[in-house]
Design a protein that fits this description.
β5, α4 and β6 form a beta-alpha-beta unit. It is built from 8 helices and 9 strands. It starts with a strand and ends with a helix. It is of the alpha/beta class. The mean pLDDT is 92.
Length: 231
């Protein structure tokens, strides 16, 4: 999967791309990430990318021309009409189902906003999906882009050491993950549930299912309601 990130601050991504699952996916050729500073596509002598909003108001708005030029340049490089995702508090809420959908795309561009956001003509004419990672406001889209990339890349075949790992997690499907334990079997007087030491795989499977439902009902009843509504 090819991911092209359009950002004013490409250096922010250095640590993220140099570690953990994403690094492994890049080294294995499962994913390819390219960073593009859309300030490089500004045409005035100051390389301006923002201006005051029409109608007045606080802050600055990202101008359309550098973004349009950057997107058009990436699409010429990629040789295809790569979808553009804009990370915005006004977008649809990002979740595991959407991560799975995006993981099926062969390529994707991610636009990181700043300041008061982008000129609406960008959203109306070249953005394919507007996505929010939650009901809060960040200083820019870079952190949100890393969240989205991590969630998507780990779902790509070959990204994880164990192919079942991405399936056996919270929200896959609908439920929070069951409690996990490791050695020692007893620690400071707290013991691992006996069923996990039994070697009875069917009993373990049932226990995990029951605990996943219990955890979800206690912490995220909205997920239980959504699961029951689909039946």
């Amino acid at each position: 999967m090819r991911l092209d990130v359009l950002t004013l601050f490409p250096d922010i991504f250095a640590g993220f791309l140099g570690g953990s699952i994403v690094k492994r996916a890049l080294e294995a050729g499962v994913a390819e990430v390219r960073l593009h500073n859309f300030r490089d596509f500004a045409t005035d002598k100051h390389h301006s990318v923002d201006d005051a909003p029409f109608g007045g108001g606080p802050g600055m708005v990202l101008a359309p021309d550098p973004i349009f030029r950057a997107v058009e340049n990436v699409r010429r490089q990629a040789g295809a009409s790569s979808p553009l995702v804009y990370l915005s508090p006004k977008g649809e809420t990002f979740n595991q189902a959407l991560a799975r959908e995006l993981a099926g795309w062969p390529s994707m561009m991610i636009l990181c906003g700043r300041y008061e956001g982008v000129d609406q003509r960008v959203v109306d004419n070249i953005v394919d999906r507007e996505i929010s990672i939650g009901d809060y406001v960040l200083s820019g889209g870079e952190v949100a882009a890393m969240v989205l990339m991590d969630a998507v890349v780990r779902l790509l075949p070959g990204a994880l050491g164990d192919g079942a790992s991405a399936e056996d997690e919270s929200f896959s499907p609908h439920l929070l993950e069951y409690p996990q334990y490791t050695r020692p079997a007893e620690y400071r007087g707290w013991s691992v549930p006996e069923v996990l030491l039994s070697g009875n795989h069917e009993a373990i499977r049932r226990w995990r299912r029951e605990m996943a439902i219990s955890e979800t009902r206690k912490k995220r009843p909205d997920l239980i309601a959504g699961m029951e509504a689909e039946r």
